[in-house]
Amino acid sequence: MRVLVVSEDAMVRLRASSALRLHAGAEVLEADGAAALRELVLRRGERFDVLVVDGDLQPRGGYAALYDLRSHAEQVGSPPMPALILADRSQDAWLTSWAGANDLLLKPVDTFELARRVQALVGAEVPPYGGATNTARQVATALRPEAAT
Fold first, then answer.
1. Closest residue by Cα to residue 124 from 65, 49, 63, 73
2. What is the pTM of this model?
3. Comparing C-alpha atoms, which of 100, 109, 148 is closest to residue 127?
4. What are the beta bridge partners of residue 87?
5. Which sign, positive or negative, has the C-alpha torsion 53, 55, 56, 61?
6. Residues 62 and 6 sit within 8 Å (Cβ to Cβ)
7. Residue 22: which residues within 8 A CB-CB, separation 6 or more?
8. 3-class DSSP state for residue 130?
9. What is the band of 130 on the pLDDT scale with cuts at 50, 70, 90?
10. Which residue among 36, 81, 83, 114 is least enclosed by CB atoms within 10 Å?
11. Nearest of 54, 20, 50 to residue 34 by alpha carbon
12. Does position 140 have pLDDT exceeding 60, yes or no?
């Protein structure tokens, strides 16, 4: 299993990479930001079984970087890679859906949980990116519960 871990925080990368190597037996490549992610995936065309992306990438965030990758995959007709977002807040779950990520894990990362979730994502079907329809439905339901029916 090949996994790409993308974070500007060296400690996040170290913790995630070590967990995946030790607990999942993964071959892990690390990237230190959105530019490195684009270089590896878009320019070099490297494929990974799972992407682990920190939501705090600069300047636009890991969610936007993943959205861009999904958009590019759709444009060129290649299958997108399963992805897990590392987030600071559980409230960012809607961003995870919007970006087309399969899963979200809160930081600080529980190493065993990360390894388990990444293993579960290998070969997983990738959800559609741009969950605006679902988000609009969720907002409408929250504002008017009768809209759920």
1. 49
2. 0.83
3. 100
4. 106
5. positive
6. yes
7. 111, 115
8. coil
9. low
10. 36
11. 54
12. no
**How much is the pLDDT for 146?**
52
Mean pLDDT of the region 129-149:
48
Q: What confidence tens digit (pLDDT) does each residue in 14-71 have? A: 999 999 999 999 999 999 988 888 888 888 889 999 999 999 998 889 999 999 998 8
Q: For residue 3, give every residue at least 6 positions away whose Cβ sits within 8 Å of its Cβ, in sequence order, or none.
A: 20, 24, 26, 27, 28, 29, 48, 49, 50, 51, 52, 118
Name 31's bridge partners: 6
Helices marked H in 25-105: 34-38, 62-76, 93-99
**pLDDT attached to residue 38:** 86
133: tokens are 């329809």
CATH number of 2-148: 3.40.50.2300
Specify the length of the chain in residues: 149
CA-wise closest residue to 50 among 128, 129, 126:
126
